Amino acid sequence: xxxxxxxxILKRGLAAWNQWRRDSPEEMPRLRGLNLFEAELEGxxxxxxxxxxxxxxRANLFSANLEGARLRHARLDDVDLGEANLSGAxxxxxxxxxxxxxxxxxxxADLRGAVFSRASLSGSxxxxxxxxxxxxxxxxxAAAALDEANLEGASIVGADLTGAVLRxxxxxxxxxxxxxxxxANLRDxxxxxxxxxxxxxxxxxxxxxFRAADLREADLSNxxxxxxxxxxxxxxxxxxxxxxxxxxxxxxxDQVVQARRDG
Length: 263
Hints:
2 strands; single chain; 3 helices; little secondary structure; two-stranded parallel ribbon
């Protein structure tokens, strides 16, 4: 239920809204279910706001403060959240198709079941974020920080994770078919999932866990290994050119035979 007073303040414009937030820091905005389609809210202070089930499609929330906001089931398709602060926000099952979250702060955010298809999260901060069972197919996550993020069961098919940092990230049961992880930092990451055709060239795989992972046709050329666990991994057709296999553990001869070395 929308609180009329809060809605009316918002209608007065961004300056009036932000001034009200400064004057009434103890009052949390209640804007649940509000229609903010194409709203101009650049730089708005919506921290701790209840925006659950609100329609924010195509809204301009560039550099807005949404720290700790409730955005469960919110409609955020095509929204501009570039450089926004969403740390600790609740975005469970939110729709973020084609959204711009470039360089946004999503540290510790709850993104379980969120749909990000074709969204841009390049350079975003997602440390310790919960992305369990989220949909990230085709998403741009280049240079994103995903240290200790939970991506278990997530669909990350064809995503661009070039240069991303995923130290100690959990991707067990995730689907990364065709994902680009060139120059990615995957140290101590749990990668017990589907990585068929993934591009892992020049990646840091020290301490990574690939037990029973599907790495068929993946490109691991020049990847750095060290305590990298390949127990039961399927490496059929995988490119291991330039890889020092002395850093691998639980890697059997038949797995190496199934892989290939180009050049």
